[in-house]
Amino acid sequence: MAELDIITMGRVSVDLYPEQIGVPLAEVKTFAKSLGGSATNVAVAAARLGHSSATITKVGDDGFGPYIRAALEGFGVDPRFVSTDPDLRTPLAFCEIHPPDDFPLLFYREPKAPDMNLTVEDLDLEAIAAAPLFWMTGTGLSDEPSRTATLAALEHRQGGITVFDLDYRPMLWKSESEAGRWYREALRHATAAVGNQEEVEVAVGTSEPFEASAALLDLGLELAIVKRGPNGVLARTAEGIFEAPPIEVEVVNGLGAGDAFGGALCHGLLSGWEPERVIRYANAAGAIVASRLACADDMPTRDEVEELLEGSGGV
């Protein structure tokens, strides 16, 4: 088996994107099928940037399971850690597309998504411990047995970079306070965290980017990243605060931008870049996907990211 640069763990789905833009689901006539799920898309984005990656997730024993494995392989992501639940169905996710800033999602993850049934027995703890970068998400903490499995994975890390994507989805939690409790437990094992202002508030009780990033570092992180929408991105380390301005593009579909940001963040961290360069690069990758219709299919290459950076003033 090939050695891996990155292992991600978390949500997977089959995304159904409407081919009619600007209309509600009731009026959509046709959909395009695509690989989806935040952690899965981050692995795809990292692979597109040249890294050997794999994702730990679970699919149903249905026709979409083989589709997901084949799609991962097609994107250059190792599917060896994709297990199968014998009873639950592979999740579906529908979206509406109303540019520039309205992209409602409709999840079909009931009664439970297979990726929430990941157990410790599903994990290759040796591979998780050895990976230079491990990426996990808040969604994986929202229910058992995935919560226990995710925490076990974190506890087995032996150095390297461990990124916690806060990825707060209110509909998957009983309460915000419960999410905050488990977020803080997981953050004890992470070296970096990334989230938007709503997500950092769940973790540390404030959405103010400067205060939240400081509070995250107080929990033991080496790097805290707060995405501020139209105000760009803020990163904080023990050495100081770094900011990246937004990159203006014509938004087509903003749903995949965060996952592209995540894959590019992995690339920058593994490359040993300074924080400002990392977040500027990740910002550019996110902007590129926001300007495109699809998500996994439209993750950018290194050349595309560098070209956009050069056109917007570089780093």
List the helices and strands and how they pair.
Blueprint: E1 6-9, E2 13-18, E3 31-36, H1 38-48, E4 53-60, H2 64-74, E5 77-78, E6 82-85, E7 92-95, E8 105-108, H3 125-130, E9 133-137, H4 146-155, E10 161-165, H5 176-187, E11 192-196, H6 197-204, H7 209-218, E12 223-227, E13 233-237, E14 240-244, H8 257-270, H9 275-290, H10 302-311
Parallel strand pairs: 1-4, 1-9, 2-7, 4-5, 4-6, 9-10, 10-11, 11-12
Antiparallel strand pairs: 2-3, 7-8, 12-13, 13-14
- Architecture in CATH? 3-Layer(aba) Sandwich
Low-confidence stretches: none
Structurally, how many domains make up the residues? 1
Write the element-wise H/E pattern from the N-terminal end onward: EEEHEHEEEEHEHEHEHHEEEHHH
Which strand-content bin applies to the residues? 15-25%
How many beta-strand elements?
14
Please summarize the sheet with the most strands: 10 strands, mixed
- CATH superfamily caption: Ribokinase
Query: What is the CATH T-level topology?
Result: UDP-N-acetylmuramoyl-L-alanine:D-glutamate ligase
Which structural class is indicated by helix and strand composition?
alpha/beta
The level of helicity is 25-40%
